[in-house]
Every structure is written in C-alpha cells, then in structure tokens.
Amino acid sequence: MSFGTNLLSPELLQALLRAAVACAENQKDKTGIVDFFCGIYLQCSDEITPHFNGDFAALLNQNFPIHRTGHEGLAPKVPPNRETSGNDSAIGWSVSLNYSDELHRLLWLSAGLANSVGKAASVKDVIAALALDQDWIDELAQTGIKPTRIVADFDREVRTIVFHATQHTGEGWPREMEFEQNGDLRPPFTLEISTPSGRFQPVHSAKVKLNDLEVAVIAWPERPTASVGVELGSSNKIEFELQGPRFGSLEVTVRGTPA
What we know:
The protein is an alpha+beta fold. It has two domains: 10-147, Double Clp-N motif; 155-258, Galactose-binding domain-like (Jelly Rolls, Sandwich), CATH 2.60.120.260. The protein is built from seven helices and 13 strands. It has helices spanning 10-25, 33-48, 56-63, 101-115, 123-130, 134-141, 154-157; strands at residues 52-53, 81-82, 91-92, 146-147, 161-168, 176-180, 185-194, 201-202, 205-210, 213-219, 225-230, 235-243, 248-258. The strands form four sheets. Strands 5, 7, 8, 11 and 13 form a five-stranded mixed β-sheet that branches. A four-stranded antiparallel β-sheet has the order 6-12-9-10, with no helix packed on it. A two-stranded antiparallel sheet has the order 1-4. Strand 2 (81-82) and strand 3 (91-92) form a beta hairpin. Helix 1 (10-25) crosses helix 2, helix 2 (33-48) packs antiparallel against helix 3 and helix 4 packs across helix 5. The longest helix has 16 residues, at 10-25.
C-alpha cells in the first residue's frame, strides 16, 4: 500500500522512503514506527526534535547502523541495474515498501487528521496522531524518546469521570446537584476539587458534602486542591458551601476505576 502526495506531504513521503531504504540496507523485513521516526530525523531533524526529549542521533545509530544523510539516503547504495534492452544509459533501482500494521495505522490517522482541514499530513500531524495512542508513545519511550509536553491520556482524563461540575460563588448557581452511578465504573472512587476554574477568581474557602457527609475542604491560597476517596451509591447528592468574591470558582470531579 502506498501513500500519495494527496495524503502525505513531500517531506513525509521522502522520510518514508529514507526509512524503507535504511531498513533494506540493515536487512529489516518491515518498516515500523521507530524506523519511520528515524526516517523523519534523517529527512528533517529540525521538524521532529523540538517535540521530543531524547538522543535521536543515538537512536538512529542503534536502529540503523547503516544509514546515509542527504540525497544519497533516498536510494540504495548498490550498483545500478542496467536495462537489458540494449540501452546502456537506462538505469534503475527498487526498494521494498513494506510497512508494519502499526505504521499503517499511524500514517492513515495522520492523513485523516490533516485531510479534515484540507491538507496533506505533515510532521506535526504525525506527532498529533502519535499522541492518540499510548502504545505508540510507550514504544518510542522504550528507545529513550519521549514527548516534550505532557500528553493527555483520554482513558484516564475522560473515561474515568462519573461526575464533573464547575461552581461559582455568584447567585443563581445551584448548591445541590444529583448524579447517577450506573456501574460502568467501579470502586475505588475519588473526589477531586480545585480552585479556581479557568481564568475566574479562586474561592476563599469551600466545603463539599457527598450524600450528607462532609468529604472535602479547600481554602485559598493555603490549600487550593484536595483529593479524597469516597463511596457512591446508584443515586448520589453533592452539596457545596462557598465563600469568596463574586466570581470565585472551583471545579469538582468524581472519578471511578474502569471495570
């Protein structure tokens, strides 16, 4: 399967070719994700290195003991095959484009992200796609290459949420709420509270009750956050007691453990 210029930028296409050539010369059967990142480093190191911590040069030397930079790295270092048609001026070469299943997934996801805004995938699209799969992040981390930024973990940040709310000290905000726990998440459950929320002002102090029990207290600036274990029923009531400026705010999240 090949990727044309309508899906991948010229730089990514050349990075793929560099990786395939290096794989062939290092007797690797398939081009994988780490091989592709080495190809990107060979093609345009300034595009990839700002987004990761680690020694790309060491990884390159370890992964591809045989490699060549510049234009020479785009073709195998073998005597050209002359055509048998009698035309001595005709030369050619070939290299196997055999990508691993995971690299196919990464390339298609990168292309899909870029195509959604009407462009071919660039290095940044590859990085964005990589961040969507923790296994890919872990595979690179095993080689010593890690993202320079904290990558959001969707499973941990979103799928563990039972309840979330933003509270403000202004009038009209409900001080009691109810929520259900349908069994998709299991104990232990944790209630997290922090102030402020976004760019609003922090509350001076806040108390939180869950099912008529006081479970958390915060105060600004001495103790702006709290995380406590809680017990939930199938139906739950949460209550807030707030003190602070008119636009004081806090966030509260109740999390569970995936079943």
